[in-house]
Amino acid sequence: MKRQVVSGRVFLNMADVDAPQTVRMTVRMQDTIDAGMMRQAILATQTRYPYYCVKLSVEADERGIEHYMLDDNQQPWVLKTAEEPVKLLGPEANDHLVAFSCWDDCVAIDFFHMLTDGTGAYNVLRTLLYEYCRRCYDANLDSTGVRMLGDTISEDEWMDPALLPKRDLHPLPVPPPPKGFRLIDEAVCPLAEVKETVNILISEQQVMRYVRTTDTSPATLFALLMLRAIGRLHPDATKGVPQCTLAINVRPALHAPLACQTLASAVYLSLMPEMKDLDIEMQQTMFRGMTILQSNDDNMAEKFWQSTSAFDQLDQIPSSKTRHEVFVGALERRQSQSCFVSYVGKANFGAAERYVRMLYTECVAPFPFGAEISAVGGTFCISLMQRLQTDVYLDAFLDELRGLGLDYHIDSRHPLQVAPIVDFRQSHS
Predict the structure, then answer these.
(1) Which residues 6+ apart lie within 8 Å of 274 measured at CB?
(2) 3-class DSSP state for residue 153?
(3) Is beta strand 106-112 parallel, antiparallel or unpaired with respect to 22-29?
(4) Cα–Cα distance for residue pair 404/399, rounded to 1 Å
(5) Contact at 8 Å (CB) between 355 and 385?
(6) Which of 421, 410, 428, 417 is nearest to 198 (CA)?
(7) The predicted structure's pLDDT at residue 348
(8) Contact 369, 349 (CB under 8 A)
(9) Pair 221, 288: CB distance under 8 Å
């Protein structure tokens, strides 16, 4: 079945070989990976997700306008027995938009962000870890909460909400965000050539104990701490306020909890000058309020439809290469946030989670400072990504953690590692 790409066009139009818009989720298990069993688990998992068994193609309509399509791809998903990721969208990945790597005690899923988001990838990982752990550890492993082989796959998993009629919406009035300052232009230290990932571990019990006694949530708390760290280093900023892009899952707002597509949006949290001298508890309450107001269902749904309409207009440009150039140029002119935070939620790997130690997420983002946050096995894993030559912002963020009494451990740090992609616009031209 051939499907036109609708949701996910933001990443399709952003992506190129220098900024591939791929995501890597790395699961660290309690034991060394058995590559043979992992290969069997991947083959089994693939049969449960036919909508992710696709390759990217392009078709021109009668007006000569190019449209990207997802075609069925019957080739197997690729497993590479090395830490280095598979190059996606080309022969190395059997033309798939998804691939896997395993090494030592780790297995990683790499995927093109156009295809799905963290919510979709979590579903795949739940099935994969179940299939692997039942082979490796317990043939009778409980499958509760796992999408299983043999399931009747609901049409609701396939259907792109962007192709459904827009329901009647009543969004709340939200004041426009203030101008943020671009950390990429204003950083107090030089930018680095290569982005680095610093993996920070914090006890989930610690974080949730703090969250339950204050007016905050894990995502808004970490966003606030990042902005407080930035604000301390820019006390006299004149080109805007410290501002964070906080990723939001829009499936609930679209009444599409099962949808497989990339369905992420964002709210903007700003550390206003009048907030800087308030105590952190009041700042948390204000950030929580900003998040609740911006992320209520009708506002998020309205934002989704506005974005869909904007990409429909962009798609009137005949050449996909020109669309990419126009979109990236507009994004560069408009993007004014300082950092980003993304927290998909608890991994909820079910019975297999007892065999999992950690989960790290890395991605490409147009910010020199940001965090992907995961929670698994009683541990928050903060993958803090920085393109900076010194640790001045990292140290300021760690100071904020210490100020709240949150004990942390830096587990590892390494150059950002995400999957490259082939030059798909060139290959389809």
Answers:
(1) none
(2) coil
(3) antiparallel
(4) 9
(5) no
(6) 410
(7) 95
(8) no
(9) no
